[in-house]
Fold:
Amino acid sequence: MGQLFLTTTAEDAGGIHRIGRMEPIIATENLKKIYRVGKVDVPALRGVDLVVQEGEFVAVVGPSGCGKSTLLHVLGGLTRPTSGVVLVDGNDFMRMSDAERTKFRRHKIGFVFQRYNLLPTLTARQNIALAQHIQGDGFNPHRFDAVVEMLGLKDMLDRKPYALSGGEQQRVAIARAVICEPKILLADEPTGNLDTENSQLVLNMMRNLNRDFRQTILMITHNPEAAAVADRIVRMRDGRIVSD
Amino acid sequence: MIVENILHRPIRTLVSVLAVAIEVGMVMLVVGMTHGMLHETAKRVQGVGADIMVQPPGASLFFGLTQAPMPVQIGDRIEQIPHVLAVTPVLFQFITQNGINLIYGIDLPSFDRVSGGFVYLKGGPFEHPDDILVDDWYARANNVKVGETLHFLNHEFHVTGIVEHGKGSRLFIPISTAQDLSGARDKASIFYVKCTDPGYTHAVMNSIRELLPSYQIHSIQEYMSLMTSNDLPALNAFITAMITVAVGIGFLVIFLSMYTTITERTHEIGILKSLGAGKRYIIDVILREAGLLSILGIFAGYGGTWLAKKAIVAAFPTLTVELTVHWAIWAGLLALGGSLLGAFYPAIRAARLDPVESLAYE
Structure:
């Protein structure tokens, strides 16, 4: 797999380190992440090798504590890996500062969480528009309308999260995640808090996003039915990928 | 998002706005009352109508601070100087009854020549040694009427007239009585000198200096310019101390408010970070929220100060509260600066939060 990454390096206009000949959109090699808890080192990832091609819908499954969420956080640039190689859209996370990874995340990554993570003081409309605001390109009404239409959110835009059902909140969260057209959508147990009907609705939407817009999706789940909608299922155990 | 956050936590918002309002009000009222009293005192002295004031060596421009009497006969010698129209001696008596007041012991005929005479709103001039004149502000503040008896300086005075305010003091007694009460027979604390024409002021001052080389001789214009907080010992220090306390209150409340807000909103900050919000964005959000709270507080402070002024003047009619745009702007800037400073550390702390830990925060 090393031949996939180690070619030439350059910096793009945003100062982000890029490596030439990057075919996969996500590629990790011997990725390790060790948390320090008190005086004890707790390995969360023990050498993950993963390649995801652009437009793929990958489900990562495994028992609790196997490192799924940590993998998602590393791939989303929320935390720095301890060692190994992480290339996301050709950007070498090991060589990027926190600020560079934040900038990268702003433009290239969309997150969907189990707890929806909508800002409680904002309406659905404001939650979605917030992502555009943070990205800094300003409010794009055409994109906004298209995403709202696609996710069926038109009638609930002026409601605050407490006035939305779990399924509606998750749809708003998906809208917020994709409003800026990220290269990768990272979903952490997106159906974990939903009933079967809403789970299916959310999974269908993610499936549609992947199929209709070639949205690359990496979804963490321990629900086999949810994993089944993906193109590919990666199994993790004890911080490693055990089947792919 | 900032407006929503402020509306979402009304008690915190109210407390923060109130603290900033108190800060602004405190600055404006302390400065307004200090300057107001100084300027009002100065205007009253100007209202005597003299061009020059003569005080003995070592006397203070702030009359209540010293009596420093000098012989009244000096007045006769000053009156002989060319271009002097009238000279009147005044002996001060400092009292603290019904607030701080300076009683003018005056020679009514010469005082009238210098000042153009009192305007009697009620009653008339002194007829007896124990008579007293009060100005309309004092009469209103203390509900004094003609014919009443007032107790000052272990002495009973009979109110014989209420005069229009603005002629040096609020209380006037015959100079002979003031001299008897203070054991300063034939003495005066100050001479007010009126020239035949204000254009002769400096010439007359030079002549008085030749006559009384070590005495303090000031034109009234000069006196007016010296009656500022800069020239009163310790007053500037007092104002500075009060402003520091006020700004400190605003700083601490905003600091505490934003600090607790950051703790309460750790999860929300994690969400912002997951959306790609950088440190600068987080700091900007926190500072803008503090700024908005501060601006609301500043305007509440302006309104509160205006109401407080009305209440103070209604309760204490002899007090003057001088609110100026200059100090309103300064108070606003101090409040805004203090608030932003108070919010800065919480903002930095928020920006440094770990995104993963923040997202996991309950």
